[in-house]
Write a structure and sequence with these properties.
The protein is globular, with a radius of gyration of 15 Å. The chain is built from five helices and six strands. It has 149 residues and is of the alpha/beta class. It has a single domain, classed as Rossmann fold. 44% of the residues lie in helices and 15% in strands. It comes from Billgrantia kenyensis. It holds the Pfam family DUF188. Belongs to the UPF0178 family. InterPro entries: UPF0178 (IPR003791).
Length: 149
């Protein structure tokens, strides 16, 4: 059975609740990894792992523990690329699957936007987490869990 790994540092609370319910319902081992304590309900299936405060400490811990066939839930594109290289599936908290076919273009776009921002251009940030995002994520997670049990 695959394990769910959650890059919990930037995971919206609503997405965290969806993940916990799905893990309990499907008895899927799930780890929330962050550099701070994550409040989670007591569970046999859902655990939290706090790592040291340091640049990419949580990301490095996730990559070290990921196994082929696991699912990483993250919107961190460099982390997603490492996970894909290790044979894991990657889903954003908006329900988008990232894979070898789309990750490089997304990283290049992110790098381009970062260059624009550093030159003083206002590019805006990510849009807020909407009810549609919540619904799309919950549906995508349910589909992935049903297919990969």
């Amino acid at each position: 059975m695959p394990t769910l790994w959650v890059d919990a540092d930037a995971c919206p609370k609503v997405a965290r609740e969806i993940i916990v319910r799905a893990a309990e319902r499907t008895t899927t081992p799930t780890w929330f990894v962050a550099n701070h304590s994550i409040p989670l309900p007591p569970s046999k299936w859902v655990k939290s792992l706090s790592v040291s405060h340091g640049f990419d400490a949580a990301d490095n811990e996730i990559v070290a523990r990921l196994a082929p066939g696991d699912l990483l839930i993250s919107s961190d594109l460099p982390l997603a690329m490492e996970a894909i290289d290790k044979g894991a599936a990657v889903m954003t908290t908006r329900g988008e699957m990232l894979d070898r076919n789309n990750i490089r273009a997304k990283v290049q776009l992110r790098d381009f936007m970062e260059t624009m921002r550093s030159s003083g251009e206002h590019t805006g940030g990510p849009k807020g987490y909407s009810d549609t995002d919540r619904r799309e994520f919950a549906n995508a997670l349910d589909r992935w869990l049903a297919k990969n049990r």
